[in-house]
């Protein structure tokens, strides 16, 4: 965003890989009014030639006077060099303004750059007594309409949406974004070690990924245009998804998939809806063996929000990568 005399004269965002960065769109809108303006950016401007020219040079040429940067770029090709270039050119640079919010927003990008794998968000809804479904139930809604609307917003924001083979068999979900204006459907990812899911299931659309075992026969999926990702374990699967450009993964699977990710220590963020209902006997979200309370994993940066009749609890299990 570019501000001149307390007026926003240009704004932009980075729409997709290979497209110009936010600074370029903002400068185009500002035109001559960029000269002497202050630029506010959530991520340090790049100074290298990648898919697009360096944003530092565009800001300098436009005559921007001051740049306020929320967070440094973890990409080794940038990592402070953008700020150094701007300062060397005589621009005033302010660092760290609203950095926590920027880091949260950039968690997927930062995980992909520094770890080579997506940021993993585990989402589920449970009753007050900790049940996600009755035994044998496939489609019972635990949470409210407001909670489901929030979930659609998350699907729109994150790169990919993952379920397990059991969910595909029980629910035949489409894994699309519904009710979000100009919504973007996430990339469907199905974890199916034996590659036994119905090839005609609704989830298999353009861009869908089947994560399966090294020896599974998946010819039918490949013939249907599905990307088949073979991996020996979950860490290998996540790195494979990273190589496909997936920076953030929303887990919406059942207890089997959730438990596997938690047991492997691969969940970075948790988003849980708690509905004011008591079910009694039913399925728990996690099927890991019981452990001592002292071994429980604490969440960091916890938020608690009332959402319709439900309560939404979110928090981090991993540090968001910085540099």
From TrEMBL:
Residues covered by the CMP/dCMP-type deaminase domain: 1-94
EC id: 3.5.4.26, 1.1.1.193
Cofactor stoichiometry and binding remark: Binds 1 zinc ion.
A Pfam family reported for this protein in Swiss-Prot or TrEMBL: RibD_C
GO molecular function: 5-amino-6-(5-phosphoribosylamino)uracil reductase activity; diaminohydroxyphosphoribosylaminopyrimidine deaminase activity
Key words, A-Z: Hydrolase, Metal-binding, Multifunctional enzyme, NADP, Oxidoreductase, Riboflavin biosynthesis, Zinc
Domain of life from the UniProt record: Bacteria
InterPro entries per record: APOBEC/CMP_deaminase_Zn-bd, CMP_dCMP_dom, Cytidine_deaminase-like, DHFR-like_dom_sf, Eubact_RibD, RibDG_C, Riboflavin_Biosynth_HTPR
Keyword Zinc: yes
Pathway: Cofactor biosynthesis; riboflavin biosynthesis; 5-amino-6-(D-ribitylamino)uracil from GTP: step 3/4; Cofactor biosynthesis; riboflavin biosynthesis; 5-amino-6-(D-ribitylamino)uracil from GTP: step 2/4
Cofactor: Zn(2+)
Catalytic reaction(s) noted: 5-amino-6-(5-phospho-D-ribitylamino)uracil + NADP(+) = 5-amino-6-(5-phospho-D-ribosylamino)uracil + NADPH + H(+); 2,5-diamino-6-hydroxy-4-(5-phosphoribosylamino)-pyrimidine + H2O + H(+) = 5-amino-6-(5-phospho-D-ribosylamino)uracil + NH4(+)
Function of the molecule: Converts 2,5-diamino-6-(ribosylamino)-4(3h)-pyrimidinone 5'-phosphate into 5-amino-6-(ribosylamino)-2,4(1h,3h)-pyrimidinedione 5'-phosphate.
NCBIfam families recorded: eubact_ribD
Family: In the C-terminal section; belongs to the HTP reductase family. In the N-terminal section; belongs to the cytidine and deoxycytidylate deaminase family.
Protein name, per record: Riboflavin biosynthesis protein RibD
Organism the protein comes from: Deinococcus multiflagellatus
């Amino acid at each position: 965003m570019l501000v001149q005399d307390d007026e926003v004269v240009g704004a932009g965002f980075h729409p997709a890989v290979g497209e110009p960065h936010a600074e370029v769109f903002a400068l185009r809108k500002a035109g001559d009014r960029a000269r002497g303006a202050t630029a506010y950016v959530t991520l340090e401007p790049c100074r290298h030639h990648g898919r697009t020219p360096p944003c530092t040079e565009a800001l300098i040429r436009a005559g921007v006077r001051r740049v306020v940067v929320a967070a440094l770029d973890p990409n080794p090709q940038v990592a402070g060099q953008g700020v150094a270039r701007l300062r060397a050119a005589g621009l005033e640079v302010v660092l760290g303004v609203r950095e926590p919010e920027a880091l949260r927003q950039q968690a997927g990008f930062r995980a992909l750059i520094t770890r080579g794998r997506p940021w993993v968000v585990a989402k589920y809804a449970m009753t007050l007594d900790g049940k996600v479904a009755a035994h044998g139930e496939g489609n019972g809604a635990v949470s409210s309409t407001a909670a489901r609307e929030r979930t659609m917003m998350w699907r729109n924001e994150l790169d990919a949406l993952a379920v397990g083979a059991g969910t595909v068999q029980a629910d035949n979900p489409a894994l699309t974004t519904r009710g979000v204006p100009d919504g973007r459907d996430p990339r469907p990812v199905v974890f199916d070690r034996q590659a036994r899911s119905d090839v005609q299931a609704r989830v298999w659309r353009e861009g869908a990924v089947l994560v399966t075992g090294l020896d599974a026969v998946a010819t039918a999926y490949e013939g249907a245009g599905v990307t088949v990702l073979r991996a020996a374990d979950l860490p290998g699967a996540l790195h494979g998804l990273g190589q496909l450009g997936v920076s953030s993964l929303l887990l919406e699977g059942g207890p089997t998939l959730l438990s596997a990710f938690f047991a492997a220590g691969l969940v970075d963020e948790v988003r849980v809806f708690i509905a004011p209902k008591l079910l009694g006997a039913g399925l728990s979200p996690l099927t890991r063996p019981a452990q001592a309370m002292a071994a429980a994993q604490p969440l960091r940066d916890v938020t608690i929000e009332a959402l319709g009749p439900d309560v939404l609890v979110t928090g981090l299990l991993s540090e968001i990568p910085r540099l």
